[in-house]
Amino acid sequence: MGLLGIYNVPNVSTALYYGIHNLQHRGQEGAGMATFDENGKCLRHRGLGLVDSIFDAKSISELKGSIGMATVRYANIANSGLDTVQPLFFRHSSGDFVVAGDGCLVNTKPIFESLEDMGNVFQTGLDSELFAHLIKKRKSEDRIENIINALRGLEGGFTFLVMTKNRLYACRDKNGIKPLALGKLGDGYVVSSESCAFEIMGAKFVRDIEPGEILCIDNKGLRSNFYSEEKRHCMCGMEFIYLARPDSDIDGCNVHAYRMESGRRLARLWPVEADIVVGVPESSLSAAMGYSEESGIPYEMGLVKHKYMGRTFIQPEQQLREMGVKLKLSPVHSILKGKRVVLVDDSIVRGTTSLKIVKLLREAGATEVHVRIASPMMKYPCYYGVDTSTPEELLCSNRTLEEACKMLGADSLGYMTPEASRESTFGCAELCLACFTGEYPSGDIKCGKCNF
Question: Are the C-beta atoms of 6 and 19 separated by less than 8 Å?
Fold first, then answer.
């Protein structure tokens, strides 16, 4: 999910439209936008597909106001369709409000059951809907107290935006697993999942929202509260490895710089004699450049990405992922023919995509394909919002390195170590590598689900 909230910016829907374009990489299943007009009425527009296919000049002009929120969504199999496209709107006697969230809660089942026993009815089953019910459940006249009390009962990796007709709240989980950044735009403020959304709107990066922080933005300015005394920085490693755009800065570390450094370290860990280095477009290109720089092996564009294809990793059906590989990548035969190739990719989840890419390179004439992965071996599911399936589906959950290499049809295979991944942040950011190490920031997790 990609979240974007803006406070006190005239014609806010236009700024949201441009900003959410720069978060399109975080989801292509749907997008939504909500604003409050000068009369306090909530206006919403949502749809399935890409931002350009959902919003036009007419829909943007109808979303009036100076405060608003927008999202892009990727869906898993259990939660898809228009009803699950955020932001979600709620009526309440204390004032109408809008909620959107990114990430995943891991303790939702008992909370859902308790609220249902009390008579609550859920329309979507999304974690953000659960959060809204917890806010409404509290009796304090001060909404910030209701939000604090609601957050104290939640575990997982998440960010939430809550919007009323005159106020915007930005919330980040106490472990800092999911990113959330604050920017300044004229006399107003912007909150975004990634800082890459700021520049296109003319906003300036101010700072990251802190773990456990609830930032309130209204006509009094910025007010910061914390819902937990237990706070830590444990940013999702997959944000740096795959999810985020290279021009984003997260917790003080630039994503492109991280990927370049991981490529350099990968070359030192797994050297090989080869003719060219090829990166898998697009999130692996920075790591491939780093590998080339460190190894001295020339970097070449051996694979071309079809411009209008989405990211196959975040399509909900496995069949769509497999069909998408050939649709989105084309080998450059004249570059690959007769060459020993180092193929650099950001990660391997199920291995089906990597298998097909290795096959593409061989069919294009590559004599050897040495696969290098700019992350550790993924052995465990992620319960914080990255769709990494069950352990049985993960390529490396029950396979040795040699067995995984054979499955891919590669000549050799090498991965980063968890230590090398952490060191690639230059000491700026601490990483959650639970899907690689099995060490979850929120403790021992028996089961999980992603319902944002």
Answer: yes
